[in-house]
Amino acid sequence: MVTRIRIFTLLFLVMLSCAFGNVKTLDIGATGPDFNLIGIDGKYYTLTFLT
Fold this sequence. Notes:
51 residues; two-stranded antiparallel ribbon; 2 strands; alpha+beta
């Protein structure tokens, strides 16, 4: 049973790494994505103050 869990975990991590293998980073000076996230402190966080 432990071997099956290890194999499943390994396959999951391989699939996860393949899914995020083609991530494009932002160029210097490029605008960030428009989002507004709430933190665990109840405050909202965004990138708009950086523009």
